[in-house]
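Thread: "does anyone have the structure for this chain?"

Original post by V.I.:
We have the sequence but no experimental structure in hand. Need at least a predicted one for the grant figures.
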Amino acid sequence: MHGDKSLLFAEDFYENMPNLQVIAYYHMHYPLLPRSLECSTNLTTLCLHECKSMFDWSLVGYLENLEVLSFAHCAIRKLPAAIANLRKLKLLDLTGCVDLHIDDGVFRNLSSLEELYMRVSEGKGVRFTNASFEELKMLSSQLCALEIEFVDKNTWPENFSFKKLDKFKISIGCLLEEKKYNEKYSFEKTLKLVTECSSDLLACKINEMFTITEHVHLQVNDMIGLEDISIRPSSFCSLMELEISSCVNLIYLFPTSVARGLKKLERLTVLSCSVLKALVKDDGREINSVGEMIKFEKLKFLSLRELPKLEILFSTENVVELPQLVELGADGLPNFTSIYPDNNNSCALLNSQVRISKLERLKITSVENLKQIWGVSSEEDDNNNISTLREIRVERCDSLVNLFPTNPMRLLDRLEELEVSRCRSIEVIFNIDLECDGLGELVTNSSLRAILVIGSNKDLWREERDNRISTVAFPSNIIHSFHSLQELVIRNYGSVDAVFEMESSPAGGRELVTTTNNQQPLLPNLQKLTLLSIHSISHVWKCSNWKRILILQKQSSFQNLTTILIWHCDRIKYLFSPLMAKLLLNLKKIRIDRCEGIEEVVSNRDDKDEAMTTTYTTTTFFPHLHSLSFERLKNLKRIGGGLSAKSSTGITTHDQFEF
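Reply from O.Q.:
Generated one for you, tokens below.
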């Protein structure tokens, strides 16, 4: 029953229910009355979840046929000794009970108990007496499921027996923390172990459980390698996730003999290990396996964070294959200057011995000496299929000069999301050689859906033919390539005076992007445009022949753009020309904030084709616009054109605004 927290029951509520077997209450202050409990001796299951009643819980002891009892997340602070009367009890759930005290004798007679859940809440562990802790020790040999946190060292599980366990979440020296993974990473066999000395874990014999454990978190200060906690080649044969953190003396993680046994490992996280030099080290024990490939068959996720001494991933002469790796995160690795190998670069994270074929997500953060991600020869790299990448995120890499090699489109034909943030030394993001054969077809096939550029003073595009640096974020000969782009965010970006160039200037020697022979719409899937703190920008859309654009495009360019957010772009005088505004039929929201230079939203001041602007007596823009927000625009004079609404040559916007 899930209902009013203050709902009260009549005293005879259960008297006519002699065969009642299951009761469950959720979020109720008074889930049942004591006298009613005594009338329910046939009850086998009682579940109270987040019930805050203050009555005498010892009356539960009268339910002698009870097999399942749950007080999960209830306010009880003391488990009474009367629970010992429940000799048929198979499952006891005390999850989330705060500062719970266990009476002496509670566990003594629970001879049928198979499952015990005691994970605490609010950081306050279960309080045992010496006697109740000894009872738990005796009980451990019969349990098949256990969730418990041994926080205080005087209650560590020495002489416990875990041989029958097939489901468990056990922590020693810390609390268990639930991770919000999707269902396939909701492990039922978890060990979280935090201690100063590896001998403490050996004394508990917890290492004997490694062969059946799926998720292990280790923080052992004196551990130099996993051998220090008696790891054998087959110890981690069931392991699916391993997290190593703050092991201050750890020099390497796996010997090669153990690495070969990680057949089920899917996730590996290593963080804050200040002297770690390598993940895998050749221990010299595999004389007959020299040159034989090491294969992490199921590893999908690898995260390396704050490892200042890491020099190489795999310190072995063997080739290492990661055939299922789809996500790689690198954060705080100062010894690497490249991610992928280069003929002239020996400091690559993924050096020539590493084989990766399915990587989809790459996140690089604070790799302070990183100068490049790909070398100039990466396109010909047979060991790593770079074209599988779908997401690239690079942040705070202040030595990075070039994000991609020249003409990167062949490498990135599946790239969907690109984020470059606060990389102060980067010179160019896309370096394009216009004379490269076949480039047009490759660029046209771009799958990019989202581009986020934050805090760069350099160039988004550079054209190698004449080494021209574009002053437009999306120049005319590039803009038609991004048919899949759905979101564009540019923040704190310098050196551009416009975002979109609809056609090039005559001096540029380039054709209008939309010609009678090539009438592809421009950014037809773009939905959201965000421009933040771009102090050099004076135009969002730049064009000298709007009439031609409008005729050729037939209102198909930017047809899905619904949201425009502009903040602190002080050189912009207006947002749209009247003819550009006619393309934006689905625009729903405009927000302009702290743009000190803006005077109008819609203006024909730069339109050279006057005939086009006077064709219609009244022009209606933005028929679906429902939100128009202006904040701190001290020079704003009018919304459109300087003409009164619905005048003979005026501008009429949609009448459903939210100010």
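V.I.: this helps a lot. The chain has a mean pLDDT of 81.
O.Q.: and The chain is about 10% helix and 25% strand.
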